[in-house]
Write a structure and sequence with these properties.
single chain, alpha/beta, Rossmann fold, 33% helix, binds adenosine-5'-triphosphate
Length: 324
């Protein structure tokens, strides 16, 4: 998915953690892009490499991670960027919203002061009054009254805290927001409210959003395009509605069936689960990594690694799609 006007591009990115127990290949040859103002989702079960992929955007991977390939932000490789450029990229170019705002916010500082911090850092010339005004606007943008700036994190609900995290991510007017499971810790109603805030913001402010979630139905609602990861690789990508309602890869199909659409009540109460567990990255199955769990596997699947075949619009990596 390479193009010239991309905001973000992962180009054949691989990340391997070096540990005492051996190498852990967390991300394997991922190529994926986000255009300006576009909303792209990355789906997959726990351990498939989603957070590792996201961390590389701001070069937040730990020193034990060996990274190959490129992560281009507006054409410049984040992995080789000088420190000054990286500091500008963080917050002002791209910013992150993580899950579990309670742990990310400082419990003894008012939330307004925390939202103001990146603004002070990136625009040191601004007066306190201007910054306070900006903080109030940011809170209102995420649906909180400006006076909540004076609250401490424990005085806010989980959903309100997550909105504060989104306000903070917007503080320096980034072109890209990376949201890693931003609603996972919230109950379903609050989850829907926070997702609506995100949805409105990306269309109003025209920022790009890379949204990471294990729940394909959440991504289907929010995203233009979705990439599905399994064992560190992208195994399918395409328009969000197509990947969710008409998946090509048996894993994407199983994932879609595990998270039926919120309106599909019958399926919601009887979701067809995905049997088995994702593989240990240190002991990946031969051939297609998904073959031991795949209901449609055939004799070639345990010896041939399927390539991602298709085009920029739609592609999948499955031998079924290669069969004559
Ligand atoms: N610092 C690390 N050192 C060694 N292995 C790691 C490290 N961080 C992650 N891993 C391993 O890399 C693989 C990918 O992890 P990652 O957190 O990127 O997946 P994920 O899809 O985001 O999962 P989750 O949704 O549970 O966070 C996993 O097998 C994980 O155990």
């Amino acid at each position: 998915m390479n193009g010239s006007a991309q905001l973000l591009e992962f180009d054949d990115l691989s990340v391997t953690y070096r540990t005492g127990g051996g190498d852990v290949p967390a991300v394997r040859g991922v190529s994926l892009s986000v255009a300006a103002g576009e909303v792209v989702g990355v789906a997959g079960e726990s351990g498939c490499g989603k957070s590792t992929l996201a961390a590389t955007i701001l070069r937040l991977q730990p020193p034990s991670a060996k990274v190959t390939g490129r992560v281009l932000f507006e054409g410049e490789d984040v992995l080789t960027m000088k420190w000054g450029a990286l500091r500008t990229l963080r917050w002002a170019g791209a910013s992150m919203v993580f899950q579990g705002a309670l742990h990310s916010l400082n419990p003894v500082q008012r939330v307004g002061a925390q939202i103001a911090e990146p603004i002070r850092l990136h625009e040191p010339g601004l007066s306190d009054k201007t910054i306070d005004g900006r903080v109030g606007e940011l809170l209102e943008q995420v649906g909180l009254p400006a006076v909540r700036a004076r609250a401490y994190p424990h005085q806010l609900s989980g959903g309100q805290r997550q909105r504060v995290m989104i306000a903070m991510a917007l503080a320096c007017r980034p072109r890209l927001i990376v949201a890693d499971e931003p609603t996972t810790a919230l109950d379903v109603m609050v989850q829907a409210q926070v997702l609506n805030v995100l949805k409105d913001l990306v269309s109003d402010l025209d920022v790009g959003l890379l949204m990471i979630s294990h729940d394909l139905s959440v991504l289907a609602d929010l995203c233009d395009r979705i990439a599905v990861m399994y064992a560190g690789r992208v195994i399918e990508h395409g328009p969000a509605d197509k990947v969710f309602t008409d998946p090509l890869h048996p894993y994407a199909a199983a994932l879609a069936a595990s998270f039926p659409h919120i309106g599909d009540l019958a399926a919601r109460y009887a979701p067809s689960g995905l049997p088995g567990d994702p593989p240990d990255p240190t002991e990946l199955p031969s051939g297609c990594s998904f073959h031991p769990r795949c209901p449609q596997r055939f004799e070639d699947c345990d010896r041939v690694v399927p390539e991602l075949r298709g085009d920029d619009t739609r592609a999948a990596a499955c031998l079924l799609l290669e069969a004559p």
